[in-house]
Design the sequence.
């Protein structure tokens, strides 16, 4: 997609994840080179990979919120899984199995996993002419480390990763890596690294940039300050955007929540907002949020007229994911003496073992009124004949950005304090 595409912004979600591989590094001769990406045959989309991404995303989100209840959270399951899938190409034995299990990719061989991600990335980047979505990958390697050509080639061929060999003791290296992050998130995340530890030998980085325009804009003249009821029991005055229109809507009386889909561009991508009833709460809703329920709920949305009131908000989120990933079964990959990344580098020549030292995630999201009008959408649901239901998001809610064609969840988060 052309990052210079014009149009009013209505939502921007920027994600960058870096997986840091540590090792005691000797100054050995490099066996390293760039491989050109092979785009001669477009890969097909493997729904097993899409489903795995959804399962992994909900599991990781649930693990994060165990220590961050009643806080704003915002992550990209896709960004995290892509970075770990690139890392998976260097794993072997129990480490490979543990990582595959955590990512819900068990049962798929390396070729199927790589081809699945390649096809998905290609499909998403041409999803909607009124949505900018770029997915960029890079590998930054320490000079003198004998990385294996097969590992590098898989990540360039299937993930389109840029590969660079750098002098990690040169202060300019930190600037170079952070500038790549800044460029590939359109300046919304200016850096991911504060320093380069002497033990670091490789950075695998994924950056996702998203900018969409509402299919139907909110009129800024109708935005008014309203009361947002915090989970703590307090209140906060925030700008609330309002309009009445036709939206895909769903209400679950048994689980006590209502939900709405706000489409971008031509409608292929949407923001889904799940709002618990006042007599319920966000944590109760999240306790029941899993892949099976998610797919079941999404299938029951129907178009009808809705009075909508949602807050303008901007979230910035940063998280070290070591503990949640270890809790999900990836602990061996973080263990210096047990991790097996022998498909990544010649460990005998290196004289040291490789393991994941740190997995960092940064994300930014901004939601406001602006957007551009699109062609009229044909109604395919049941229009309410009575007074339209009111969807007033004046209390904590869960939201997700989803590609409705591939069913990929790009982002997910909670707004507890906008």
Sequence:
């Amino acid at each position: 997609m052309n990052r210079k595409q014009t149009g009013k912004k209505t939502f921007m979600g920027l994600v960058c994840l870096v997986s840091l591989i540590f090792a005691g590094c000797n100054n050995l001769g490099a066996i390293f080179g760039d491989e050109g990406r092979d785009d001669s045959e477009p890969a097909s989309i493997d729904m097993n990979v899409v489903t795995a991404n959804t399962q992994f995303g909900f599991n990781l989100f649930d693990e994060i919120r165990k220590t961050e209840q009643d806080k704003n959270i915002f992550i990209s399951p896709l960004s995290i899984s892509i970075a770990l899938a690139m890392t998976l190409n260097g794993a072997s034995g129990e480490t490979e199995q543990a990582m595959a299990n955590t990512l819900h990719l068990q049962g798929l061989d390396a070729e199927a996993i790589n081809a699945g991600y390649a096809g998905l990335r290609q499909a998403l980047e041409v999803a909607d002419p009124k949505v900018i979505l770029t997915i960029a990958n890079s590998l930054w390697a320490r000079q003198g480390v004998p990385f294996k050509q097969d590992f590098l080639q898989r990540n360039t061929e299937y993930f389109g990763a840029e590969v660079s060999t750098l002098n990690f003791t040169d202060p300019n290296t930190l600037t170079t890596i952070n500038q790549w992050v800044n460029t590939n998130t359109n300046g919304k995340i200016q850096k991911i690294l504060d320093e380069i530890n002497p033990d670091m030998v490789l950075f695998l980085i994924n950056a996702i940039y998203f900018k969409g325009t509402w299919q139907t804009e909110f009129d800024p003249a109708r935005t008014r300050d309203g009361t947002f009821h915090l989970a703590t029991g307090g209140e906060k005055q925030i700008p609330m955007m309002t309009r009445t229109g036709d939206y895909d809507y769903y209400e679950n009386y048994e689980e006590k929540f209502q939900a709405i889909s706000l489409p971008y561009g031509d409608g292929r991508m949407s923001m889904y907002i799940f709002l618990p009833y006042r007599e319920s709460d966000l944590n109760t809703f999240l306790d029941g949020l899993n892949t099976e329920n998610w797919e079941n709920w999404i299938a029951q949305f129907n178009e009808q007229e809705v009075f909508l009131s949602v807050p303008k908000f901007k979230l910035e989120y940063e998280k070290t994911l070591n503990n949640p990933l270890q809790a999900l079964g990836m602990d061996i990959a973080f263990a210096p003496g047990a991790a097996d990344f022998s498909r990544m580098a010649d460990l005998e020549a290196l004289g040291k073992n490789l393991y994941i030292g740190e997995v960092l995630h940064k994300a930014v999201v901004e939601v406001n009124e602006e957007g551009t009008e699109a062609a009229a959408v044909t109604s395919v649901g049941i229009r309410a004949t009575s007074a339209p239901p009111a969807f007033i998001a004046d209390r904590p809610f869960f939201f997700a950005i989803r590609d409705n064609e591939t069913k990929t969840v790009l982002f997910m988060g909670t707004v507890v304090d906008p």
In short: The longest helix spans residues 47-65. The radius of gyration is 22 Å. DSSP finds ten helices and 15 strands in the chain.
